[in-house]
Amino acid sequence: MALIVQKFGGTSVGTIERIRHVASWALDSQAKGDDIVLVVSAMSGETNRLVELANQINPIPYSREYDLLIASGEQVAVGLVTLAINTEAAKRGLSATRARGMLGHQIGIRTDSVYSKARIQEIDTRSLHKEISRKVIPVIAGFQGVDVENNITTLGRGGSDTSAVAIAAALKADDCEIYTDVDGVYTTDPRLCKEARKIQRISYEEMMELASLGAKVLQIRSVELAAKYKLPLHVRSSFNPVEGTRVVSQEALGSEMEQVVVAGVAADTSQTKLTLQNLQDGPGVAAKVFGALSAAAIVVDVIVQDVPVSGMLTLSFTVGKADHLKAKQVLDDLKANNFNSMKIVEEKSLAKVSIVGVGMQHHPGVASKMFALLAEAGINIVLITTSEIKVSCLIAEEHVKRAVECLHKGFELHRVE
Ligand code: ADP
Ligand code: ASP
Ligand code: MG
Fold first, then answer.
1. Ligand 3 center–CA 2 separation, angstroms
2. Which atom from ligand 2 is nearest to the alpha carbon of 160?
3. How many CB atoms lie within 10 A of CB 198?
4. Which residues does residue 228 pair with via DSSP β-bridges, in sequence order?
5. Which mutation among 67, 143, 217, 218 tests ligand 2's pocket best, with the greatest number of atoms within 8 A of CB?
6. CB proximity list for 176: less than 8 A, separation 6 or greater
7. In this structure, are residues 36 and 4 in contact, taking their beta carbons and an 8 Å threshold?
8. Whose alpha carbon is nearest atom 9 of ligand 2?
9. Which ligand 2 atom sits nearest the alpha carbon of residue 158?
10. Which residues line ligand 1 (CB under 6 A)?
C-alpha cells in the first residue's frame, strides 16, 4: 500500500465534467489499495481572471489583499472536487464522506510573508494523517498558505505544483503525480513546436533549468523541493492514462543522460528588459540598484554591465513581466534620490530562448552552434547568459516560435532517444 499525492492543474479541473473525472480517478486509485491525497488548482482561466480584475483597480497590486483575492480560485475548485468525490462515493455505495476539502490555513501550510511569492516553511500534517487513517481523501487547495499572522499568501503562478510536492515531502509520500494537460515533459513546449518529443525520464537538474527558463509544466520551486527531498515526480496527463515523465535524480538516470548533450529547449515570453544609462560609475552602484530591487522582492534575471565610457555606466537586466511596473517604480525612486543623471529605458517585447542539458558541460561548441542556428534563421541576439548546463539568448518576442523550432531541429531533439 502506497501513499500517493495527486495534483490536478487548472485544465484538469476546468469543467464539471473534468471534475467528475478527477473524482472517479481518485476513488479508483484508492480502490487499488493506496492512500490518496489530492491537491487542486483553480479552474483554468480563473486565476488569470482574478489577476485581471485586480489589475483594473491597481496595476501594481502585490499586497495582502491581492493574495487574498487570487487565492480564492482554489477554494472553488476544492469545494467542487470534494462534492464530486462524495457524490460519486455515494453512488458506489461507499461512505458519503470519502473526501474532505481543506484550505491552506486549515491544515497549517505556513509560509513567509512575501505576498505572491511566498515560500512554504512548514506543514502541519496531523490533520492530514488523521483523515488518511480514516480512508478519507484530503482535497487540498494548492497555491496558498498562511503566514505567521494568519494572512493568506500565495506561492507564485503555477504554485500548486509546489504545494503538492511540499505536502508529499511532509507526508513522506511514496509518489507525487502531477496531472496536467500534456502527457509528460517534452523536449520543448509541444504547443510551440510540433516536433516536440516526450521525455521518459529527466534529472531534477535539467528539469529545474527548463522550469526556470520558461517550461511552465512544473513550477521551478516544486522541482527544487523534489530534488531536496529526493522525491520522484511523475508528470502525466489527466486526459490519457499513459505513463508520463519521471523526474528523478542524476544517479537514478546513470549513464542514460551522458549521451544527451541538449535535453530540451525552453522559451520564456514573460520577461522585460530595463536598461539604466548614464549612471555615474563607482563602487556600490550595482549594490544599490539590485539591493533596492531585492528589497522590493523583485527577482532579477539576466544582468549585463557595459564597460564605463567617460566614467558613465550602462546596466541592463531583465525582470518578469508581472514585476515590471514595480521595478520601474523602484528605479524611479532611485533616480530621484540617488542617481539624478540616470536614464531608464524599457523594452517589453522580448523573449528568452534557452537550451538545457547536463551533457553540454563536457561537450565544447554547444553555445556557438546555438548562435549559428539563430543567425541562420536571421534572429538577432540581444543578450546572452550561460551556466554549465544551459545557454540562454534574449531575442525579440516575435521570433520566439521560429527560434524554438530551429534550435529543436538543429540539435536534433526530435531524434534523441
Ligand atoms: P496545469 O494547469 O496543469 O498546471 P500548466 O499550463 O501550468 O498546466 O502547464 C502545462 C503546460 O506547460 C502545457 O500545456 C505546455 O504548453 C506547457 N509546457 C511548456 N514547456 C513544456 C515542456 N517542455 N513539456 C511539456 N509542457 C510544456
Ligand atoms: N491557480 C494558480 C495559477 O494559475 C496556481 C496553479 O495553477 O498552480 O497560477
Ligand atoms: Mg501549472
1. 25
2. 8
3. 16
4. none
5. 143
6. 4, 5, 7, 164, 165, 168, 226, 231, 232, 233, 234
7. yes
8. 157
9. 8
10. 9-12, 41, 158, 180-182, 185-186, 188-191, 210, 215-217, 264
Which residues form ligand 2's pocket by a CB distance below 6 Å? Answer: 9-10, 41-42, 47, 73, 142-143, 157-161
Phi, psi of 237 (to 5 degrees): -90, 140
Q: Whose Cα sits closest to atom 6 in ligand 2?
A: 158
> Which of 18, 162, 177, 189 has the most ligand 1 atoms within 8 A of CB, as the residue to mutate?
189
The ligand 1 atom at the shortest distance from the C-alpha of residue 180 is: 3
CA-to-CA distance for 211 and 392, rounded, in angstroms?
Answer: 13
Beta-carbon neighbour count of residue 376 at 10 Å? 10
Provide, for the chain, the percentages of residues in helix, strand and coil under a 3-state DSSP scheme, each rounded to the nearest 5. Answer: 40, 25, 35
Distance CA 75, CA 78 (A): 5
Looking at the CA of residue 9, tell me the nearest atom of ligand 2: 7
Cα separation of 370 and 352, whole Å? 13
List, as one string, the DSSP characters of 239-258.
Answer: SS-S--EEEE-HHHHGGGGT
- Mean pLDDT within 129-158: 97
CA distances from 371 to 320, 375, 396, 411, 413 (A): 24, 6, 15, 12, 17
What are the grid coordinates assigned to 392, written together?
540562454
Provide DSSP, 22-55: HHHHHHHHHHTT-EEEEEEPPPTTHHHHHHHHHH
Instruction: Count Cβ atoms within 10 A of the Cβ of residue 224 and give its class: 0-12 exposed, 13-18 middle, 19 or more buried.
Output: middle
Mean pLDDT across 200-214: 94
Which residues in 32-49 are b (16+ Cβ under 10 Å) and which e?
eeebbbbbbbbbbebbee
pLDDT in tens, 303-313: 988 888 888 99
Polymer length in residues for the chain: 417
pLDDT tens track for 250-293: 888 876 655 678 999 999 998 899 999 999 888 999 999 999 99
DSSP state of 309: B
Q: Ligand 3 centroid vs 314 CA: distance in angstroms?
A: 36
What is residue 185's DSSP assignment?
-
Ligand 3 is a single-atom ion; what residues have CB below 5 A from it? 9, 158
> In the structure, how many helices (H) and strands (E) does the chain have?
13, 18
